[in-house]
Known about the structure:
Strand content: 25-35%
Number of helices: 4
CATH class: Alpha Beta
CATH topology: Nuclear Transport Factor 2, Chain: A
Radius of gyration: 15 Å
Shape: globular
Amino acid sequence: MPDTLTPDTLSPGQMLRHWFQTVWNEGNPELIDAWVAPDAPVQGMDGGNEPIRGPAAFRAAYDGLRAAFTDIHFEVQDVMETADQAIGRWVLTATHAGEFKGARATGNRVSITGMTIIRVTDGKLTAGWNEWDRLTLALATGAVLPRPE
């Protein structure tokens, strides 16, 4: 999809797909300020229990993930949508090339699964929820060690 698209020309499902392709896969965070509402809560970006809020907090989480993982690629596998929401199931692949949650870079290739739900109001992402396989990521980055046999 061309970068000239605006969220008000896209359905929530199209917006979700374009978001992952442009922001994450192509590494172009410009849409963060344009598409995320100023007070939008986004759950599950940093692994904590509290949501981050708004474009600046999202950008900080985004920058942290991009510093810790190179060649990030999201393969969006399924998208379902309603008039104002979309849910996408995805697989993330990346290389652990920088510190993440106290774990030094391992150079390990990681692959994790997850899902994202977005709510769209007046062409802006007004809420987001992310659930992903944190245990697989923690094992791949050495943040936790596998159980001895």
